[in-house]
Write a structure and sequence with these properties.
The chain is mainly β and 168 residues long. The chain has one domain: Jelly Rolls. It contains three helices and twelve strands; from the N terminus they run E-E-E-E-E-E-E-H-H-E-E-E-E-H-E. A five-stranded antiparallel beta sheet has the order 1-9-6-11-4, with no helix packed on it. Strand 2 (19-21) and strand 3 (24-26) form a beta hairpin. The longest helix is centred in the middle third of the chain and has 10 residues, at 89-98. The radius of gyration is 16 Å and the shape is globular. The N and C termini lie far apart (34 Å).
């Protein structure tokens, strides 16, 4: 498999091979990502189920996510740069309603290992589906660069149903 690199134009989810034995398991999640996309790593733990983080919009930053404990539902939203920069709630809300094809959902858990890579120009966020969900995140930018590349968008602007677990 070709490694995911800076040419990625759409959010991409890869199911990752898990190596397990009687001691536990190993997840080689960076084997699928070009090392040029990794300049910072950090861990996020949500203490409770239902915590929403995001939507965050980045102009330069690639985000790489994997869940190591618990479960999460991830949402990506392709949004024109100019609209994100204006960050007008009504405009973004209308755009989301008119372009539902630009909103994608991915689910990951410690029982379904994977890597989600989100390129720049996509708003993204996630909600913890279990208590004590732990996310490992990698980025192509160091913290000082990333904090200036973050446009915060109200996560409920796309509609609350995207964040809910709907009975089926």
């Amino acid at each position: 498999m070709k490694k995911l690199n800076e040419n990625l134009k759409e959010p991409t989810f890869i199911t990752v091979q898990t190596i397990s034995d009687d001691r536990g398991f190993l997840i080689p999640f960076t084997d699928y990502v070009d090392k040029e996309l990794i300049n910072r790593g950090y861990v996020v733990e949500d203490y409770g189920k239902g915590i929403i983080r995001g939507l965050h919009y980045h102009i330069k930053e690639f985000k790489i996510f994997t869940i190591v404990s618990g479960a999460g539902k991830f949402i990506t939203f392709k949004l024109p740069l100019e609209m994100a920069q204006r960050n007008d709630s009504n405009e973004i809300k209308n755009y989301a309603k008119e372009h539902p094809e630009n909103i994608k959902i991915f689910t990951m858990s410690s029982r379904h290992h994977g890597v989600l890579v989100i390129p720049p120009l996509f708003a993204n966020g996630w909600i913890s589906l279990e208590d004590h969900t732990i996310l490992v995140s990698l980025s192509n930018l160091i913290y000082e660069e990333a904090k200036d590349d973050d446009i915060r968008i109200d996560p409920l602007i796309i509609g609350e149903d995207y964040w809910r677990v709907i009975p089926r």
